[in-house]
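Input sequence (307 aa), recorded before submission:
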Amino acid sequence: ALSHNGPGRPVGERARRGCGKGQERRAAWKDGRKRRRMARQLTWKHLSVEQVEAYLSLTDAPSRLAFLTAASELPSDPELAGITLDLYHYTLQFAQRQRFTADKVSVLYSIVKETHDVAMAQFLPARKAYEHFRELLLMHSVQRPPFSVGLFTLSDAKAITDFLSAGYFRHYLLYKYAFTKKTELSFATVYTHTQSVPLLPEPFLQPMDLAEQEDKKLARLEQEQLATLSTEAVTVTAEELEQTGVPADVREKLLAAVNDTLAAAHKAMEDKFALEHAQLQERVATLSAGGGSPVKALAPVPAEPEA
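Predicted structure, token format:
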């Protein structure tokens, strides 16, 4: 007994219908694949039988090059057009040496053209480009209609492979370099508005003598500030120690040690001020002589003794 899936049709009938749809899809896929493979066959695709016969009737190289220039789709760049034209010319010369028939000449020209166009457009590495060429060659070397046609014999396929391996694929990197697209960047700067610079006031640019007077004025102010510093030594009295709560038995020793430390610090500060004053006097003398402000290393300052 067949089981039902609700009020619909039996499972067996539904399975048969699904199987029929699957077979139809597979048949449509095979038909599409067959059409695609047939579309890739290159017989008389780029050169017709009349064009091949007209080319084979020519006897000199200039007329053949002119014929290929008119019959081929060459790049717009003159240098790339010359490289492509040489490739087609030598390919057809090889076909003539092999005494190929008109259909073989047309297919060989189309194989080389398709391989070169796809490899340069997709920037393929050499291995991928060779695989594409081999696929096209096998499609025209094995009699298996409608997927392939046995146009070239085994010896023809071997001769074509040797010819392109020793020529086109040997110099493939040069072709790839020549046909690589160059990217150039050009830019321009456009100012949307302009701003006028105001003129400097008259007293802005001072004469050199006024600038020297300003330097001397600054030096004199520094000397006055140094002179105003107190040079008297600071001492600590016994009464100050007593007020801080220092015991009487250590008060005299502590008073002597503190006063000695303060005297040493005062002497170190006086030495430092004297050194800076001497350096300042040297700078003032240099500026007065008109030699600019020299850059000299300062002498090391004596370290202050620790308390």
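Checked by second reader. Residues 33-39, 293-299 have pLDDT under 50 and may be disordered.
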